[in-house]
Write a structure and sequence with these properties.
Blueprint: E1 15-21, H1 31-34, H2 36-41, E2 45-56, H3 65-77, H4 87-97, E3 98-106, E4 109-116
Parallel strand pairs: 1-2
Antiparallel strand pairs: 2-4, 3-4
The chain binds S-adenosylmethionine.
Length: 121
C-alpha cells in the first residue's frame, strides 16, 4: 500500500485516470490539508487525465440522523477523520489544482471528477 500523504515513487507510465473513492474522509487534517494528496498524486497522471472519487462530508450537505450517528462513531474510533470536511472547501481545493471540476452530492456523499491541466484542450 502507498501513502497518498507522502511522495509516491513510481516509474511506470502515467495514468489517464485515477480513482480515490471514499479515501479523503479517512485522511487526517482539515480538507485543505488532506487535499495535499492531490498534489502528490498529480505527478502520476498525464496531462488531461481525469481524477475522480467520492468522499463523505459533514459540512454543506444533508446528513440523515443515521449518518450523523455513524460518522460520530467512526470519527471517535479514528476510522473517519472528516469532522471539518465540507463541500465548499472540497470544491475550492479541486478548483485550485484542476480544470473541469464537477462535484455532485448524494446525501452526504460528494462525487467528484476533475481534469489534470495541461492537455492543451
Ligand atoms: C473506506 S476505504 C475505501 C476503499 C475503496 N477505495 C472503496 O471505495 O471501496 C478507505 C481506504 O483508504 C485507505 N487509506 C487510508 N489512508 C490512506 C493513506 N494515507 N494512503 C493511502 N490509502 C489510505 C485505506 O487503507 C482504505 O483502503
Amino acid at each position: 500500500m502507498r501513502n497518498v500523504l507522502e511522495t509516491i515513487d513510481f516509474n511506470g507510465a502515467k495514468f489517464d485516470s485515477l480513482g480515490v473513492n471514499y479515501l479523503l474522509h479517512c485522511l487526517p487534517g482539515d480538507m485543505a490539508t488532506k487535499a495535499r494528496a492531490f498534489d502528490l498524486l498529480s505527478p502520476l497522471m498525464s496531462p488531461g487525465a481525469v481524477v475522480f472519487g467520492s468522499t463523505l462530508l459533514q459540512g454543506g450537505v444533508a446528513r440523515s440522523f443515521a449518518a450523523q450517528r455513524l460518522m460520530a462513531f467512526y470519527n471517535s474510533k479514528g476510522i473517519f477523520s472528516n469532522t471539518q470536511d465540507d463541500l465548499e472547501t472540497l470544491t475550492r481545493e479541486l478548483e485550485k489544482r484542476f480544470s473541469a471540476v464537477s462535484v455532485e452530492t448524494v446525501g452526504c456523499a460528494a462525487l467528484f471528477s476533475a481534469t489534470v491541466k495541461g492537455s492543451g484542450a
